[in-house]
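Pinned message: reference record for gibberellin 2beta-dioxygenase
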Amino acid sequence: MLKTTNPPLFRHYEQVSRLSPSDHHPLPAASAIAAAMEECQLPLIDLRGLGSRDERERAACAAAICRASSEWGFFQVVNHGINPGLVRKMRSEQSRLFRLPFDDKVSGGLLNNSYRWGTPTATCPKQLSWSEAFHVPLSKVSHKDCYGDNFTSLREVMVEFAAAMAELAGTLAGVLVENLGHSRGDFEDICQESSCFLRLNRYPACPTSPEVFGLVPHTDSDFLTILSQDEVGGLQLMKDSRWVAVKPNQDALIVNIGDLFQAWSNDIYKSVEHKVMANAKMERYSIAYFLCPSYETSIGSCREPSKYRKFTFGEYRSQIQEQVKKYGYKIGLPSFRL
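Predicted structure (tokens):
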């Protein structure tokens, strides 16, 4: 029997379509969707400014980061300090990993058994993500027993890549924290590298429909996310109450604010809803770094009067999981507003 690398996404799509025929309407042609979708260029920030000897250049770069975090919740960075050769090696190893037979990815114990695909809780097509991923805690990235004998090179690259992303995340978070009148040291005590995650994503080509989500609309539940993506595109975000497509830029990394930073900043920084649309002909790869605290960490607003009640990250994650089970989608921060 021929082994396939793809998860059974089409079968799952058919199953959830039968569960909810009222949600499954004829879809417009892909060309009509493309024509209606506005493409945007995210704010592009050159991080060399942060290391400048000129105080005005440093201040201007920091101000651009904070302004984009407030106005867009998303921005791109170049000259970020992560070697392009390292990014290429990471993408090559990622591609080799996902080419494994599906059964091996599911049951092979790779990367701390972190493989996941589709959306197990989906009850209709609009809740289904046409994708697969390894969602790896950084505390496990260096463990040899997570890789087996055939992925020694993946381990070496993952360790180096995770360290580089962690350093960049710390730099960006430090800028955002200082803008609110707090010290970087206080925030470093909240977010330690061991509580963060690295997620390797693959979005297989999807001939089923031009409106299938590669990743359903959501906000990120962390402090901030750093994304390295290929040239295929598909990322969209909510801007001024409408969806806009993000023009891919392989030379830049995308940064977005998560729910925890919105709550901690008392809504000064914005966690913006975003999604990935599946591509009918091409697969898409991306790698995301999630800056997270420990589950025991208490999250409170840095300014008074607070717009949110205090909660732990563990409590937040638990409530989101319950919401997804009950409603099929995440409510998130509005549940914690005072």
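Pinned by admin. Summary line: Residues 152-179 form the longest helix (28 residues).
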